[in-house]
Write a structure and sequence with these properties.
Bound molecules: 4-amino-1,4-dioxobutan-2-aminium adenosine-5'-monophosphate, magnesium ion
Number of domains: 2
Strand order of the largest sheet: 6-10-11-16-15-14-13-12
Order of helices and strands: HEEEHEEHHHEEEEHEEHHHEHHEEEHHEH
Number of strands: 16
Structural class: alpha+beta
Distance between the termini: 35 Å
Strand content: 15-25%
CATH class of the largest domain: Alpha Beta
Oligomer: single chain
Length: 477
């Protein structure tokens, strides 16, 4: 007999004869009530066991984590909170789960403990909800761009380029590490390597994406990116997923419009399609808030926060204005920040970004026109000669969620900038072809997918919104 998803059973419009459900036992109460979950929804279906006619050996094997198959009628439930339950006629244990050994017991586990069990934590309500929301959000990303006629481009994972020029790359080699071939000068001879050159895992698909935008008009990438930055924070992963749209003929303003519209679309999509999971996570957060002192509690619930982003325009502020605000906010250099910005030209730290978003503007902020020297080489230089058409989108509780820019479309200006930064022109000759042949104004941005999932789920550690997190010193599973 084919099994029916728990979600479909719970959404049934009538009672049903003889249904079959398969899933994992969450709890088993009073030797009678199984809470069965199959991952299709946060909600369990209650299965009522005829314990008087079920052998003890079987009852004993109905333990948390066990896989079971239940067959019986779908009947109206007398219990509170559920419309239907299964009156079990036949029960089969598909896979036992030793209650002494199964780590995911029905009690509150710490997030740290769950991280150490990333392969099993998805069997908890919270992680089931997070991973379903993550899946829906990625579908929403594709939906948004596909509806607008963007072409999805798969940029390479292995590349010779350092798109961001930050040098935070994982090297890729097939050379024997204990016997590296050397050149006559004594350096590693990458000509003998698999690709005949030095390669690394991509930090961004942007440069390759630009070449496609200059032919297909509007493109987006959505794939894994890698950064060997040693930032052991709750916002950084060594392997994360990035969405990078790139659009020919868009200037920075159009780029901001696109980013704002896109983010609001995907958040709305989650609100419309993940109601039960979001409500569950909201409840979880409310519980957590209760343990905090009043002053530290969030003014908004999770759903209020998400709706707020939909209903309010993002505030657009230039870097220079932002610096003035930050300076004015610390008139006597009070210890508001651990690092005080005195000079125009300094990079903002996450504490400054969060001050602007959470305390000053109290809404998402798009910062633009950053000093050229703190941004990547490919950004369009402004007429002032010292700022570039960069934009970062800052979100409450997250900080930077998007980084993007209008690109430098002028061949000579770009080459000069590369020279000044010591970037090898020959290495990037293919990239410069976009400026050699039919160059045009174009813009794009990168959205860190996990930072979006963090925001939507209300979680606070990025390790909790990706199935198997990669962070410094940690690549288990
Ligand atoms: O600001 P970033 O470095 O920009 C780029 O890579 C550009 N090439 C994007 C573009 O214009 N096409 O990274 C973009 C976003 C950040 O705003 C952040 O959300 C996320 O990627 N991000 C990370 N997320 C998790 N862990 C990390 N280590 C991240 N580094 C960046
Ligand atoms: Mg950035």
């Amino acid at each position: 007999m084919r099994h029916t998803k728990v979600k479909d059973l719970l959404n049934s419009t009538t009672t049903l004869q003889e249904v079959n459900a398969k899933g994992w036992v969450r709890t088993f109460r009073n030797n009678q009530f199984i809470a069965l979950n199959d991952g299709s929804t946060i909600n369990n279906i209650q299965c009522v066991v005829d314990f008087e006619n079920t052998p003890d050996e079987i009852l004993k094997r109905i333990t948390t984590g066990a896989a079971v198959s239940v067959t019986g009628n779908l009947v109206e439930s007398k219990g509170a909170g559920q419309k239907y339950e299964i009156k079990v006629a036949k029960l089969e244990i598909l896979g036992d789960s030793d209650p002494e050994k199964f780590p995911m017991q029905p009690k509150k586990h710490s997030l740290e403990f769950l991280r150490e069990n990333a392969h099993l934590r998805v069997r908890t309500n919270s992680f089931g909800a997070i991973m379903r929301i993550r899946s829906v959000l990625s579908f929403a990303v594709h939906n948004y761009f596909q509806q607008k006629g963007f072409v999805y481009v798969n940029t390479p994972i292995i590349t010779g380029a350092d798109a961001e020029g930050a040098g935070e790359m994982f090297q890729v080699t097939s050379l024997p590490l204990d016997n590296l071939p050397k050149t006559e000068e004594g350096t590693i001879d990458y000509k003998k390597d698999f690709f005949g050159k030095h390669t690394n895992l991509t930090v961004s698909g942007q440069l390759e994406g630009e070449t496609f935008a200059m032919a297909l008009g509007q493109i987006y990438t959505f794939g894994p990116t890698f950064r060997a930055e040693n930032s052991n924070t709750s916002r950084h992963l060594a392997e994360f997923w990035m969405i990078e749209p790139e659009v020919a003929f868009n200037d920075l303003d159009a780029n901001m419009d696109l980013a704002e519209d896109f983010i609001q679309y995907v958040i709305k999509y989650a609100l419309d399609n993940c109601g039960d999971d979001l409500k569950f996570l909201e409840g979880r957060l409310l519980e957590e808030e209760k343990s905090k002192p009043q002053a530290e509690r969030s003014e908004m619930t999770l759903l209020e926060k998400l709706n707020f982003v939909l209903e309010n325009n993002f505030k657009r502020v230039s870097y220079t204005e932002a610096i003035d605000i930050l300076r004015e906010s610390t008139p006597n250099k009070k210890k508001k920040f651990s690092y005080i910005i005195n000079e125009w030209g300094a990079d903002l730290q996450s504490e400054h970004e969060r001050y602007l978003v959470e305390k000053h503007f109290k809404c998402p902020v798009i910062l633009f026109d950053y000093p050229a020297n703190i941004k990547a080489f490919y950004m369009r230089l402004n007429e002032d000669g010292k700022t570039v058409r960069a934009m970062d989108i800052l979100f409450p509780g997250i900080g930077e969620i998007v980084g993007g820019s209008q690109r430098e479309e002028r061949f000579d200006v770009l080459v000069e900038k590369m020279k000044a930064l010591g970037i090898d022109e020959k290495e990037l000759s293919w990239y410069l072809d976009t400026r050699r042949f039919g160059s045009a104004v174009h813009s794009g941005f990168g959205l860190g997918f996990e930072r979006l999932v963090l925001f939507v789920t209300g979680m606070t550690n990025i390790r909790d919104v990706i199935p198997f997190p990669r962070t410094p010193g940690s690549a288990e599973f």
